[in-house]
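Re: [help] complex structure
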Amino acid sequence: MSIELTILGCHSATPRVNAYPTAQYLEINSRSFLIDCGEGTQRQMRKYKVGFSKINHIFISHLHGDHFFGLIGLISTFGILNREKQLHIYGPTGIKEVINLQLKHSKSHVKYDLIFHELNSKKSELIFEDEKVEVRTIPLHHRVYTNGFFFKEKDKPRKLNITAIKKIQEIETCDYNNLKAGKDFKLSSNEIIQNSLLTSDPEAALSYAFCSDTSYKPDIVEIIQEANLLYHEATFLADKEDLAKKTRHSTAKQAALIAKKAKVKKLILGHYSSRYKDISLFKKEAEEIFKDVILAEAGKVLSM
Amino acid sequence: MSIELTILGCHSATPRVNAYPTAQYLEINSRSFLIDCGEGTQRQMRKYKVGFSKINHIFISHLHGDHFFGLIGLISTFGILNREKQLHIYGPTGIKEVINLQLKHSKSHVKYDLIFHELNSKKSELIFEDEKVEVRTIPLHHRVYTNGFFFKEKDKPRKLNITAIKKIQEIETCDYNNLKAGKDFKLSSNEIIQNSLLTSDPEAALSYAFCSDTSYKPDIVEIIQEANLLYHEATFLADKEDLAKKTRHSTAKQAALIAKKAKVKKLILGHYSSRYKDISLFKKEAEEIFKDVILAEAGKVLSM
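Output below.
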């Protein structure tokens, strides 16, 4: 499994008994990320068995309460649980001041390293990278400075064709990394064996685009192009397009238009306004534009 | 009914699926108060049907997360719900800065008046008073500056003895307030009718003492003397008295000793450490010292 996304909360504005605000847990290419952290996220993590120790990187889209009021609680809980590992927080400028002020007043300075990566660029930028995954911002358009996040697996190594390799006695285990990297093999006779005879194409590198909150913003299409999965907020249905524009949110139809233009594989919708009692209407509206639509629900897990 | 206390959350440290941190809703003599506001309080208010519009005064004991991380979310939700009434917040110095900084970064300045009453006195002080109720601080001893709160009904008016009153033709409805206030009645003949012949003693003024978090602190007894109901934290059992002392918390036994010394009518325990799976042990321990012990549980309502 390359990507596993767990929805922890997917509603907008205010937490209700069974409607938690935005938070998602993403596993991608053996890396674990928390995306947004509305009030109650730590409770939802416990409920849906997301191990607290797996979280080393938290990405916060913007500083509206339904996306980050749960962060200080989670940071404090990590401290109470005697966390020692570094924790990286990526979010808008100001997030460090907000968190540190609360830690100061509660005299709860955590013993682990809390490292803030404050964002203020209006252009997409690379904010995380290791050998497995890279994460770029997706500049969005909302009432406050907001980014989505584009998570992409690094290109994977070519797959070894062990049957073919075993036939060449000179190839040793220590050569495998060169083969995985696509290099040809040179025999002691100076004969060259082409890499394509010893390996097959790697699995495709998958990607996940998270976009919340934003008004309809077609220029994000070039960043999220052909993502395997796109989460796009859909606060309203098309009947409230004016309200979406005014509050800088999107309709289900607009989310589907983005999915279609970007040629993503699947679209998952969320951030529903509490005015809608029947969220199946969001799927119905989006499916008129784009065929593969899923509705976010707390506890839903998507794997690919 | 003079006092009705609803427990919204009663656990310590970190929120869990069915264990919410401290928050209580108190109705006393027709006044409504929220006491402490851990993460998830607004969800619990919805669950237990506490009307948001009833809350005009919120008392925060101290700035540890399990007592106030839900406050910013509730304040924001009031804004989203277009609240217009003033909201008064009573809590340690620093609370205003923490809340206002978050409102600033989220560009969510609320449209109602948010009035902070910052506390820093080490002595008990009167912090709220109207014609029905008064509220005094109970200075506690914890790792950060902390107050409990003593809610007391104002003395109630004497009860009119309508049968006796009706026999005196000269007494008119406009005289009733004087009679309720204990004044004698003077007839036009200058004869005096003693108040006690026209009224009976009023109902007793009830009181509620909220004490969380604190180490064992017997000097609070004089403030909470003969309270009708005392909530006292009991984070530990007596087997962890050393840990209670170190972390500046109390044991169930210590809570019961306070109840006994103060001659309160009932004791309600809460703030249980998550290390204890069987909270009935708290009741058992306290009952060895004090007979009328209740265990706080989310959703429990106590009336008197």
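The interface with chain A takes residues 13-17, 39-40, 42-43, 46-47, 63-65, 69-70, 72-73, 76-77, 80-81, 92, 94-95, 97-98, 101-102, 105-108, 143-144 of chain B (CB under 8 Å).
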